[in-house]
Specification:
CATH topology: Immunoglobulin-like
Mean pLDDT: 88
Number of strands: 7
Radius of gyration: 17 Å
Strand content: over 45%
Helix content: 10-25%
CATH class: Mainly Beta
Shape: elongated
Oligomer: single chain
Number of domains: 1
């Protein structure tokens, strides 16, 4: 009986993971102190499976975050104003799926 319960639990866990996935990629563009982000995360039902958080850090310190309750079918866009960006600053973007997984990407300002 114990083996059956463990097998059933693992099956449910694997099926849940099959319907959830991490963000595919993160695109970062910086122009005049504005960080434009697009998180690619294709889903069939963006009302229940979506990017729930995008956070931006500058040189290791969080400077902005946006939380969401839905997304477009192909992913989530966000924009952050970050004044005082200069050459060699490191902008980090962190995105979290509502069901499973996350992704981080860094960009060094030129």
């Amino acid at each position: 009986m114990k083996k059956f319960v463990i097998a059933a639990f693992l099956a449910v866990l694997l099926l849940s993971a099959a319907y959830a996935h991490s963000p595919s990629s993160i695109s970062i563009k910086i122009l005049d102190g504005v960080v434009e982000v697009f998180v690619t995360h294709p889903v069939s039902d963006p009302a229940t499976h979506y990017i729930k958080l995008i956070a931006v850090s500058l040189n290791g310190t969080e400077v902005g975050r946006q939380e969401f309750t839905t997304q477009k079918p192909d992913g989530q866009a966000a924009s952050f104003t970050v004044p005082g960006l200069k050459s060699k600053d490191v902008v980090s973007v962190y995105a979290v799926c509502s069901r499973f997984g996350d992704k981080r990407k860094d960009l060094t300002v030129e």
